[in-house]
Amino acid sequence: MSENRIHVTFPTDLLREIDAICGVRRRSAFIEDVLLREVRRRKLMKFLENKQPAWKDEDHPELARMGTAAWVRKMRRESERPSLRKPPRKSSNGSGNVVRKRTA
């Protein structure tokens, strides 16, 4: 990301508080972090205030076929199944590293 230098003025009391939190040499990083969070928060608020639904049924045909509750139950059952993969064997030297035998 490219950077631009800007000139911003702050009340002296606020600047003292910022310096007490992050130090004089870290002002820019602190202000950038705070502003980035605020921009994200405002974008989220704008999105949440939007009257258009974020979820469209046509974008998720797997849910339309079986219904949301059935789809969630199916996904939970699949995630609770034991894995079909065998866990790797530990080496005989006790290192815990997997030792693979070479085949000719």
| Extended strand count | 0
Shape: flat
Q: Structural class of the secondary elements?
A: mainly alpha
Largest sheet: none
Stretches where pLDDT falls below 50 for ≥5 residues? Answer: none
Return the string of H and E elements: HHHH
Count up the helices: 4
Overall pLDDT metric: 83
Radius of gyration: 27 Å
The end-to-end span amounts to 52 Å
Q: Please estimate the helix content.
A: 40-55%
What does this structure look like?
The structure is a single chain. With 104 residues, the protein is an all-alpha fold. The chain contains four helices and no strands. Among the domains are: 12-49; 54-81. It is flat.
Which terms summarize this structure?
104 residues, 4 helices, mainly alpha, single chain
Concise description?
The protein has 104 residues and is an all-alpha fold. The protein contains 4 helices and no strands. Among the domains are: 12-49; 54-81.
List the helices and strands and how they pair.
Elements: H1 12-22, H2 27-49, H3 61-66, H4 68-80
